[in-house]
Amino acid sequence: MAVERTLSIIKPDAVAKNVIGKIYSRFEMNGLKIVAARMTHLSRIEAEGFYAVHKERPFFKDLVDFMISGPVMIQVLEGEGAIAKNRDLMGATDPKKAAPGTIRADFAESIDANAVHGSDAPETAAVEIAYYFPALNIYSR
Ligand code: UDP
Known about the structure:
Blueprint: E1 3-10, H1 12-16, H2 20-29, E2 33-40, H3 44-50, H4 60-67, E3 72-80, H5 82-90, H6 103-107, E4 116-118, H7 122-132
Antiparallel strand pairs: 1-3, 1-4, 2-3
This protein binds uridine-5'-diphosphate.
Uridine-5'-diphosphate binds near residues 93 and 114.
Keywords: ATP-binding, Cytoplasm, Endonuclease, Hydrolase, Kinase, Magnesium, Metal-binding, Nuclease, Nucleotide metabolism, Nucleotide-binding, Phosphoprotein, Transferase
GO biological process, one term: GTP biosynthetic process
Function: Major role in the synthesis of nucleoside triphosphates other than ATP. The ATP gamma phosphate is transferred to the NDP beta phosphate via a ping-pong mechanism, using a phosphorylated active-site intermediate.
């Protein structure tokens, strides 16, 4: 399997719960390396741009409001099959449907406050990584 990079965001609910370290250790224990990371409080413009693909969806405004409700932790994960591996570790979008032991099953409350974001395909991973990190701030190891 190829080494990939994927974009991960620990959302405001999980940052507020003080579980950044617990989520990072799941990445590390499953062969994903953190090769870039940054804590930030997104502006409305940044959050709307990031989720532009969802702008016609009924939940768009609530999603943006939630993503700017507190600081987030944004990271690039690198490893074999990183995109699918991170999605597996995250679990289903709705934590009630997420498999036991996944990040969303363990740390998320609801479909809108669902703890983490992860890129869903190589094309979106490339766009999302470039949205937050210039290439020179990614420290491939
Ligand atoms: N979302 C929501 N309500 C929905 C569907 C999605 O609030 O009915 C939010 C949720 O936070 C989700 C994000 O929109 O994580 C992006 O949706 P997507 O379908 O891409 O889910 P993901 O890839 O995050 O599992």
